[in-house]
Amino acid sequence: MGKITELTDEQRAQLAPYAQAWIEWVLRTDPTTADERARVEDGMRRCYEAAGIPWHGRVVWVRSPLVACTAEPIAAHILQHVNDAVRDAVDDAVDDAVGGAVDGAVGDAVRDAVRDAWFRYMSPWWSWDALRAACVEIVGVPQAQHLVDALRDANSAGIWWPHTHFVIVSDRPSVINREQIGPSGWGSHRLHSATGPSIAWGDEWALWHWHGTPVPEWVITNPTIEAIQNEPNTEIRRCAIESFGWPRYLDALGLQPVDTAPDPGNPGHRLELYDLPTDTQPFTEPVRLLVMRNASLDRDGTRRTFAETVPASIGDAVSAAAWQFDIDPAIYRQLERAT
Amino acid sequence: MTSLQTILDRHHILAADQALADIDVPILTGPQRQGDVLIVPRPPLGNAEHTTMTSVPATGVQVVRGEATGNSHILSPEGPIYWSPAGQRDGSLTLGVLEVPAGSVAWLIHTDEHGANGIGPGTYRLTGKREQADELRRVAD
């Protein structure tokens, strides 16, 4: 069979929903059932068989990748036979089948379509699996369906480590929290939760992220002035201050604004410009903080107070607000209404 | 006069603050702000520039692309209005140019807390907001 050199419109139309289905599959957080576990283990057996390695039938399920990472080298050391050949061999076989049958341009088109719908934080391993599955199931690369099926079944719980005499496999996470930061596509989501872990595996292990930045648990659950002052990493400190709230933080430090002014268009509310002590500067560039109050109430009936950073060279509060919109402060003062 | 409720209903948006839903939204021709979007009067476009403008459909047009929280600022027409989105040039905060002919109103609606702003006849520049980090970064609510 010759190389596949172009996609039909029908095939192209299938790519986005196909990628979406993979994404939903990867983001599952429900516990694995007994049936699912049996299917996972059978997928592993088929991977071993495809790789030509005898199936040992010993599968150790653990609750989280942390436990797997701890248990795996110990078990491997005891057994003295570490062997990652299984997944490698199956990977190679699928690559050969797909690579031999798909022209570069088609491969690129499929990869882009799958990648565009993917998530930044997810392992490239997943998008690679999805790409190869798309080549087989949509583009129609022959003689690799059984490999794609075996890998998909084996991968359908959490990450797994195959060895000559045993497999360790982790459960799926029980929690995944993300936020959308752009139009759907590559990099459109990042891990974030202001109230709990971004990813958790039961009660066993959790990861914490503030708008995509990995942070220690205290940043989310218990940010305090003391912890913030003692944090040597400026990135984590900035996240902790944002989590604590800039207005609260300024208040706690007992700082007085260098300038305040009525907020144009927002009657009854003031703009406040603060200087930050050197040891609390969040960036390399020196900044001042402009504290503002929303002109409209939030859905929960509260009025949000927030702070944004402006160049430290700005002397007054209205000029700081005008700088944020890159406009003459004289025009900003004429704002008739803010909502 | 047009109440916030009437404007939101056209786009099936639930008012964030019911107390304000029945209040009339003023139609203004001076500078206004809606959260992180500024509306500033500017001189009318020349004929050549004018040809790049497109008529805003009744379903409205989103003025900020790819907003962080999924909340959107939407321009909604009452009578013909014209919009020309800015190219995505690095460093420019301009979102686009709006033209509201005599007799028309442009409603700028926020899908969450910021309600609506009425924009009367004239030509306007809509501008986004930035803050100073290690690089300048765009603010979007």
Radius of gyration of chain B: 15 Å
Mean pLDDT of chain A: 81
Secondary-structure-derived class of chain B: mainly beta
Rough shape of chain B? Answer: globular
Oligomeric nature of the chains: heterodimer
Number of strands of chain A: 15
The major β-sheet of chain A equals:
4 strands, antiparallel
Kindly report how far apart the N and C termini of chain A lie. Answer: 64 Å
| Class per helix and strand makeup of chain A | alpha+beta
User: What is the share of helical residues of chain B?
Assistant: 10-25%
SS strand fraction of chain A: 15-25%
Relative strand content of chain B: 35-45%
Structure characterization notes:
The complex is a heterodimer of chains A (339) and B (141). With 339 residues, chain A is of the alpha+beta class. Chain A is 43% helix and 16% strand. In chain A, the strands form five sheets. Chain A has a four-stranded antiparallel beta sheet with strand order 11-12-13-14, sandwiched between helices. In chain A, strands 1-3-2 form a three-stranded mixed beta sheet. Chain A has a three-stranded antiparallel beta sheet with strand order 4-7-8, with no helix packed on it. The radius of gyration of chain A is 27 Å and the shape is elongated. Chain B has helices at residues 4-10, 18-21, 47-50, and strands at 27-28, 32-34, 37-41, 54-55, 61-62, 73-78, 82-85, 94-100, 105-110, 116-119, 122-127, 129-132, 136-139. Chain B has a six-stranded antiparallel beta sheet, with no helix packed on it. A five-stranded mixed beta sheet of chain B has the order 1-10-9-6-5, with helices on one face. In chain B, strands 12-13 form a two-stranded antiparallel sheet. In chain B, a hairpin with a 5-residue loop joins strand 9 and strand 10. Chain A binds chain B through residues 179-183, 265, 282-285, 287, 294-299, 301, 308-311, 324-327, 331-332, 334-339, and chain B through 16-17, 20, 26, 28, 30-35, 38, 40, 65-66, 68-70, 93, 110, 112-117, 127-134, 139.
